[in-house]
Amino acid sequence: MPLDRVCVIGGGAWGTALAQAAILAGRTVHLVVRDVGQAEEINRSHSNSRALPGQELHAGLRATTHPEEADIVILAVPAQATRTVLAGMDPALLAGKPVILSAKGLETGTLARQSEILADMAPEAVPFVLSGPSFASDLAAGRPTAVTLAGDDATQTSALAAALAGPSFRPYAADDRVGVEVAGALKNVYALACGAVEGAGLGASARAALIARGYAEMARLVTAMGGSAHTLTGLAGLGDLTLTCTSVQSRNYQFGMALGAGRQTDAILAGGAKLAEGVATAPVAAALARSLGIDAPLIDAVDAVVAGRADIATIVAGLMSRPLKRED
Ligand SMILES: NC(=O)C1=CN([C@@H]2O[C@H](COP(=O)(O)OP(=O)(O)OC[C@H]3O[C@@H](n4cnc5c(N)ncnc54)[C@H](O)[C@@H]3O)[C@@H](O)[C@H]2O)C=CC1
Ligand SMILES: O=C(CO)COP(=O)(O)O
């Protein structure tokens, strides 16, 4: 199977960074953006000032506004836009092709994972999921970045990882698509919580406790959905939780800090907040946990704060007064 030509869809920070990584891996890459002016800027000045200000892009990276035939398709639009983007694509560009889903979120309404959306919209595409600790600005700048790339066929997944690997980008092949996808979506919810802990001045001990109990909660949900708890020991689980739950560079963490400072979701969004996928994913994850009969007090707490149903002080008091239990 040829794996040279790569089509990256999504001209935001992550799509641009993945396009840069793919070209540094030796691939021929076109980046699909929505805005003609943005495509012109990338092609003319080798920069995408809106998405990655100050980052010089590889001169060989070509931007277009329409996807073209490629051997590998990478989707890097927000999780809630994936279905619309797939609906607008020529099915022939997806049929039989490896399609790498890189958004971290669960779909509002359907509760679907990204690869379930792909299965609905392009059943003949071959799904892969990419997730892990990776700020777009790090990857685009060539700072060392490692992620998990999960797919159903081990040989194909390793070939794809090799096609995208470069001097500073290291995808590890894996087979647990469900675990990788759910971990990627849920870490954003815990990042909101950890940011809120910081915003509310609750201390680093509370934040570390939240990460550990979030990890345990994540494992319950992942296994109930058919994924493996072992996956969470890797880059998509522990790796991304560590990054996003401790770094003010994370947009989810930043959003959480604003919530922790007492601001309401609508006001934060109206103030032009950057994309924080956990905001849409929190209620979906809460609904999923309920439907599976999984106890998920932290996801419920984030959902309640994001929806404005409870303030941080009430949430913390509630969590701390839960009946004592064994650490299982
Ligand atoms: N920025 C980062 O460091 C990382 C982001 N991700 C994930 O990648 C996904 C995208 O995030 P970013 O690129 O950072 O966001 P972004 O906000 O920088 O860019 C989103 C891009 O998607 C485009 N878009 C939005 N709706 C669209 C639609 N309906 N049709 C076509 N294009 C549409 C926007 O025009 C924009 O270019 C998210 O799920 C995020 O969690 C994953 C790893 C790292
Ligand atoms: O997923 C990410 C890093 O792995 C990016 O996190 P944020 O979307 O919170 O900035």
UniProtKB/TrEMBL annotation:
Pfam name, any one: NAD_Gly3P_dh_C
Catalytic activity: sn-glycerol 3-phosphate + NAD(+) = dihydroxyacetone phosphate + NADH + H(+); sn-glycerol 3-phosphate + NADP(+) = dihydroxyacetone phosphate + NADPH + H(+)
Residues that hold substrate according to the record: K104, R251, N252
Glycerol-3-phosphate dehydrogenase NAD-dependent C-terminal domain location: 176-316
Residues that bind sn-glycerol 3-phosphate: K104, G132, S134, K187, D240, S250, R251, N252
InterPro entries according to UniProt: 6-PGluconate_DH-like_C_sf, 6PGD_dom2, G3P_DH_NAD-dep, G3P_DH_NAD-dep_C, G3P_DH_NAD-dep_N, NAD(P)-bd_dom_sf
GO cellular component terms attached to this protein's record: cytosol
Tagged with keyword Glycosyltransferase: no
Entry coiled-coil feature ranges: none
Family in the record: Belongs to the NAD-dependent glycerol-3-phosphate dehydrogenase family.
Protein name: Glycerol-3-phosphate dehydrogenase [NAD(P)+]
